[in-house]
Amino acid sequence: MTWGERLRLGLSGIRRSEIAGNPNKVKTAYILEYGRIEAYCSMRRKLIVPFTMFILLLAACTSASSPTLGPEMQPVTPQSSSVPTPPPTSQAIGCDRTLTPAQTEGPFYTPNSPERSTLVEAGMGGTQLLVTGKVIDQNCEPMAGVMLDFWQTDDQGEYDNVGYRMRGHQFTDENGQYALETILPSRYPGRTPHIHVKVFASDGQELLTTQIYFPGASEQIPDGIFRPDLLARELEPDTSGRRRVEFDFVLPD
After folding, report:
1. Kindly report the CA angle at 122 between 130 and 237, in degrees rounded to 5?
2. How many whole angstroms separate alpha carbon 179 and alpha carbon 163?
3. For the whole model, what pTM was predicted?
4. Which residues lie closer than 8 Å to 13 by C-beta, 6 or more apart?
5. What pairs with residue 148 in β-bridges?
6. How far is Cα 145 from Cα 162, in angstroms, rounded to an integer?
7. pLDDT tens sequence across 109-147
8. Cα torsion 156, 160, 165, 166: sign
């Protein structure tokens, strides 16, 4: 209700007969009604201001009492379910950069052996053996075209010093890998089972002379030359039951 409406209502409560033809009474009536309305409005202002303050205070308290989520309470954003792509494998991962120790050549080396990857001949006894591995440098890079010259005893512990039985050489492939089919060499007085090998660069330079030993056999027999760090690694037999071992050669850059 507006102020004018309230004023009109106030005036309507005064008898017209009391104010008819009397301007002073009309003026007095207006003044009285205006004072009453002003008192009413003042009372409302006194009520509205505290109420407004109460609303603002309530809003502030509500905001202050709202818990703030710490890092442990923050909503969790679902992570991507994609599996990270593993880094590409290479020979450098897990590569042993320890140089292969050199060992004595011994008295039974014969140069110019035939090129072949198998030393096994018809009717030969002994335990069938497959020796595989690779030739790498200290940066774990494969050395292709390297010549490996092998010689060993037969199943009776004898070297062939006349011909080339149980002797032969081969070259590593583009990945520096080699594979030798042979038999487990037999022991002889003073020596535990082993295979001799010489490593030559593609230009014919000799890079290494050493020996390969076999777990479960070589370390069981007293031998002053034997080195445990030259033991081949045992692998699972192949489908024919043939024994398999692995031996890597690490050479200087």
Report:
1. 25
2. 22
3. 0.64
4. none
5. 170, 199
6. 28
7. 999 999 999 999 999 999 999 999 999 999 999 999 999
8. positive
